[in-house]
Amino acid sequence: MLCLCCSLWTVRGADEPVLNPSDANIVGHIIDKKSGEHLPYINVFLQGTTIGTVSDGTGHFYLKNLPEGKFTIVMKSVGYKTIEKEIVSKKGKTLEINFETEEDAVSLDGVVVSANRNETTRRLAPSLVNVLDTKVFDRANATSLADGLNFQPGVRVENNCQNCGFQQVRINGLEGPYTQILVDSRSIFSALTGVYGLEQIPANMIERVEVMRGGGSALFGSSAIAGTINIITKEPQRNSAQVAHSLTMIGGSRPDNNTTLNASMVTDDQKAGIYLFGQSRTRSAYDHDGDGFTEIGHLNAKTVGFRSYLKTSTYSKLTFEYHNISEFRRGGNNLDLPPHETDITEQTDHNINGGGLKFDLFSTDYKHRLNLYASSQHTKRQSYYGAGKDPNAYGHTTDLTFIGGAQYVYDWTNCLFMPAEFTGGMEYSHDNLEDVMVGYNRTLAQKVNIGSMFLQNEWKNARWSFLMGGRFDKHNLIDHLIFSPRANLRYNPTKDINLRLSYSSGFRAPQAFDEDLHITAVGGDVAIISISPDLKEEKSQSISASADFYQRFGAVQTNFLVEGFYTDLSDVFLLEEIGRDQQNNLLLERRNGKGARVMGINLEAKLAYEWMQIQAGGTLQRSRYKEPEKWSGDESLQPQKKMFRSPDVYGYVTSSFNPVKRLAVSLTGTYTGSMLMQHFAGYIPSDKEEKTPDFLDMSVKVAYDFPLFKSGTLQVNAGVQNIFDSYQSDFDKGGSRDAGYIYGPSLPRSVYVGCKIMY
């Protein structure tokens, strides 16, 4: 790999233009095809180079002192159709290149990377990838990643604890640990940070979120059985700044204050830039039923960070990222007292530092591309998980995660029977976690080292795509090499019909820590989870087929998607009660079950017409164990085949209306069908299976923009979340409650107001 890097650098250096100004320039403007208005802040760049700019406030752009030769100039921006033009730059000559584009409300030509670890358009991606952009987060008044993930078919975010608000995301019916969460395509979400991580990622650092349902282990490693969520952070594009504040009154009575600050600075020559982000959030605890115990815990969080780039040459680029997350959360009762003087307290104090470095290098003909990367995250946590005024329930945890690797891409002009793209790489990941509870004389420590290699080749043109590949993983807790193959077929009979068929296998390694480090208080006891010494890796086989239809009727753009999925799990992980320890803590053991099958259909429809955009989706699914599994020590309860917390029907809707230019009205909502729940004894006399009601959670937001001077905007907004107050009505009460018996929408009816200043 080092030799390859050196050879590429030699080739690049030989062909690099001299440093003397060439005076080969391009000027132009970008206009909206329908309205004729000039479009500001649109990206324009030369494909295969680091040369690019952004149109100014008047919709004009200027590229100067370009290298000589043939290039493809690209105009690209979220929400508009991408346009490419061939140009020839010559020394001393200025070209005028103008673009006329139109809105792409259904995001057919949006860029995604999660389908094959390389940038491609959603239309030509070998796997189906859904994208959540900043508009979706804005319509939903999202403060964090957790608030926006619901608005995709097959995806559902749930709250799993009355005390601390532990949240997890489910894709295609499978619980959180089956989903791989990535930040800029790197898996730095460890088992520890994944517990509260969905709420710790602020929305203002997110450019877009890519969701790929189904097995993705062949690309991104273990825990991608249900799917992959790739958080793409914002990169600086132009000089800008934004400050915003919102106040939400939870249940109409308890405040949740959120303040964000963003700033982007770019040099005049576009060779360096930095994007800064910060968030401060304080949420008061909320007690819905008046028993003195929280349903929504107290939260105090602060996040700061940056992402920056340096274009080291016309064909190479360095990217840096850093973030610090400081978060305190607490739930239970008597929040003003020390934790060990309360009936129940779950409290965590996190300090997380993470960052990454990436180097991109490619040849002048763009046939060779090399990417070197390293990311790391360090977490320190002080915690208390206890009940009954237990002085021994304090703990502290440290966790260090590192991932580093290299990826090489080669574009074949013709490989056997059509053009192709080869991708190969190596990756190493390390996680060192130690969790100590001195009072219980308990130390849990685990080091995970995984060495990986991935290879794939995609034969593709505008109509066909055939992808074959796989990933090899050597996990230090598994004594054999794991191979995860992958195969994808895409067929476009016409430009606006995409048919896809995918197969992948995956695995989930024996992991002592995920929700285990969120120790739920049940019936006044603490449940402590251990792993069976015979625990084997969990394996999956996934198949999906989809049809994506796009049709335009004059000014109306439409898109309809239907996707079928099937996942077979073997040696599935289960929890079983095995007794109590010397401190009378409930002991649960993770062991292997026979297996499970998850199958279903995802449906999605989009419609856009000038001032109106509507998107809705739904999932019909079936999640069952192959054999009935025992979940309770109560002998009167029969083993259960149906997976808990997995509704057979759920869906979402998001819409935006702009009746006048500066006014935006958004209506968003989710539907959660009835599901089977575990309800442990404590507040109730014995363990029970509960069938929950269904919920319709609808929200509305109104925003209006006021112009400030030449380039500034003041936005004021207000809204109501959970308009119909569709909220759980049978919470457990008191010190003996089952804190995990919580379901339905995360908030009762709540009102909010906010303002935002943008330059």
TrEMBL record:
Q: Where is the TonB-dependent receptor plug domain?
A: 125-228
Which SUPFAM superfamilies has this protein been placed in? Carboxypeptidase regulatory domain-like (SSF49464), Porins (SSF56935)
> Where does the TonB-dependent receptor-like beta-barrel domain start and stop, copy by copy?
300-723
Coiled-coil positions are none
The subcellular localization recorded is: Cell outer membrane
Gene Ontology CC terms, in alphabetical order:
cell outer membrane
Gene Ontology MF: a single term: siderophore uptake transmembrane transporter activity
Q: What InterPro entries does this protein's entry cite? A: Beta-barrel_TonB (IPR000531), Beta-barrel_TonB_sf (IPR036942), CarboxyPept-like_regulatory (IPR008969), Plug_dom (IPR012910), Plug_dom_sf (IPR037066), TonB-dep_rcpt-like (IPR039426)
What are the UniProt keywords, alphabetically?
Answer: Cell outer membrane, Membrane, Receptor, TonB box, Transmembrane, Transmembrane beta strand, Transport
> How does this protein sit in the membrane?
Multi-pass membrane protein
The family classification in the record reads: Belongs to the TonB-dependent receptor family.
Designated name of the protein: Outer membrane receptor for ferrienterochelin and colicins
Q: What is the lineage of its organism?
A: Bacteria, Pseudomonadati, Bacteroidota, Bacteroidia, Bacteroidales
